[in-house]
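call fold target=histidine kinase
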Amino acid sequence: MSLSRCLSSHFREDLFTGTDIVKMIVLVSFSAISLMLTAIAPDYSAYLICPLIYCIPILLAALWFPRQGLWVTAFLITGFALIRTYLSVLGFTIDPVMTGLHTMIFFWVFGVTTLFSQDSNLIASRCRRIVEEARDAKFLCDSETLRLVCASRQCADILGYTAQELVGIPAEMIWADEVDKVRFIEEMKLEGYIGNMEMTLRAHNGDARTVLLSCRALVPENLFECTVVDTGRLQDENKDLIRSNGRLMELIQQSNDIFFMQDTAGRILHFSWLRSPDYGFSPDEVVGRDMDCLLPEDLAAQHMEQVRKAIEEQKSVSYDLDLVIADARHTFSVTVAPYTGADGVLSGVVGSARDTTEVRRQRLACRQMSWEVDQWKGLVTTLSHELRTPLQPLIGYLQIIVEDPGYYGLPGETEKLLRTCLECAGQEQAVVEKVVELSLLTMDYVDLTIQDIPLRRLAGSVVSAGGYDTKAQIYNEIPEDVRIWGDPDRLYMAVECLVSNAVKYNEPPEKVWIRYAGSNENHYIMVCDNGIGIPGDIIESIFRPFYIGSTEKRGRKDGRTGLGLSIANKYILLHGGEITVTSAVGEGSTFTIRIPREV
């Protein structure tokens, strides 16, 4: 192994930091200065000063690199002795007693410094940078008591402490199981190293953390350097990842969209399409092949152009692809985006394709329907004008004639016929007005004029204006203080329709009750009668346009058009409410209008 690769491996193992290199340079510099000063001491009469310089590198070596401190001291003492011996041979006066005394002083400095540096605070100071800057979760602990000396932030996070809180914490607060603790100590004393031993540590909140512990003994420092891997967290993250991947794959497999992956050369790495069996191929058949196995040559080239664009620009690209499948033309909306592997290297693209053919058809159908509605609105407007225009003068002239038939010299029989014509024309005019109103309600938006309405007064005006109290006994039982929010004109017409039907489909003694009930959310207006009732099999049909009741009654006598309830119901629906009915044949019916308090 080359020197550069060896040093690189040391750095990856966090044995040295950038600060350690600086310390080595300082140590080598002081060692060289000490040896050089010893060599030139006779020329400058510096015998007393030179030996003191040796104490500096010896002191620094004992503090910074205690495991190599003895070797550094031995090297310096050997160099000191050899230089002194060489000077003696050259004829310089060298005192052997002082040489021996200096040698003993050097060893004494090394010994005292080494013993002093075993204090836990000094060890933590020396090792804290290595541990704190480590990429892994690490801690240092005393080899005898297992009391923590320092810990990295990652280790503190696993145990729920801060790094400062872990300093000096006793082993009993960390090791959850005493048996694990004893086994750990025995293994470390026996081997001096442990690799991935499963342990249970106690977190700050008392929870047990299952971890893998890898430790080595730092013999000169009497410390254990340990690396922690939280297997519990890895298992949870792995389970979450598996569940997420499972849900993602389930969604992909259930989606009608196409999902694919391609490498930078264009080969298909993954392909998923729920509808692929419908077109006679399996996704596994295309994996490992180029896109031209799925697309015609020109479309495959167009797709690869977009793939290269996504890779070169490092951003997602979207485009539309027109393709004929099974003799049917389809349009796909395709999106491709670059993706990188775990090593950060660009691996290819991921993409999706959605068949937007049906969406386009629906949009076209909506535009067609909108056009048809506009045409129908114009037709209704035209028809209403064309139908109303001839009826108005016809009814006007007939009204003038029948009011004074003698003036026009008409016999009684002719007058009777004209009155019948006037009555029929009036009925047709009512039908035209209601048809136009219903058409506008069905096709167009109606803007309500919401006001505060005194309900009893509104019901009273309906009864008096229609003269219904002359045809039946009307009981207005709505309290005086009841007020509701709504469009007065639309509500008037809805109540008028119900009262009109209650009077029209009644039998002696003809009675109609108009009542009110309220709740926290709704108003209820009820119109009850003692009339003929409605058979249960036709109750759901009475709100249909032009429905009268039975085929034998379709002569539309008495001005019946079958539109009143349909229009009334739409007015109430505009208020966010509804009309319901309960009825018994021969006993009568109750129509109930429900309107929300907040329209």
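return ok
Residues 1-17, 550-557 have pLDDT under 50 and may be disordered. The first strand starts at residue 137 and ends at 142.
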